[in-house]
Write a structure and sequence with these properties.
The protein is α+β, with helices and mostly antiparallel strands. It has one domain. The chain is globular, with a radius of gyration of 19 Å. It is 17% helix and 34% strand.
């Protein structure tokens, strides 16, 4: 009798541990994250794109250092918008960015991102990198997007404009 109960608890715990981390897919999903954005600003920047033309222009500018230039990913701008989270210049390789969570807070969609950094003492390439993440956002009652780290430090905010 105890063995089936233990087995049941073990399976339940294993199922919980296997649950995917990240935001609810109905709010936000990563489109593309990398470390080679062609934006070398000194600090974080957040931009919000609500139309195909605005996103296509921004995507081309973000990737103007690539040959051949990649095509922008498909986005249904009738139901979605895109947030670009740009961290700015980093002094070495080993930096990155990933989407961790998204939730509604009043009229704001809060997007939580985690910056990956090389560990102290790591041997890394001495090259300027510029981590970024493009995030697909489901349209809803929100009017602004606020991007923050897991500790709640604000990296930037952008208002939804257009349709």
């Amino acid at each position: 009798m105890i063995r089936p109960a233990c087995l049941g608890v073990t399976l339940l715990l294993a199922a919980c541990a296997a649950a995917p981390a990240g935001p609810p897919p109905e709010l936000a999903a990563p489109i593309e994250c990398g470390a080679d954005a062609d934006w070398q600003g000194p600090g974080p920047r957040v931009a919000l794109y609500a139309s195909r033309s605005a996103f296509a222009a921004a995507y081309a500018a973000l990737h103007r250092n690539r040959r051949p230039a990649p095509r922008p990913p498909a986005v249904d701008f009738g139901r979605e918008a895109v947030a670009a989270v740009l961290l700015g210049m980093r002094p070495t390789a080993g930096y990155g960015l990933r989407l961790a969570d998204a939730f509604l807070e009043g009229e704001a969609l809060v997007v939580v991102v985690v910056e990956r950094r090389p560990p102290p003492g790591a041997i890394t390439a001495q090259v300027i990198t510029s981590p970024y993440c493009l995030v697909r956002l489901a349209r809803g009652a929100w009017r602004t997007v606020r991007v923050q780290d897991p500790e709640g430090h604000r990296l930037g905010e952008a208002a939804l404009e257009g349709p």
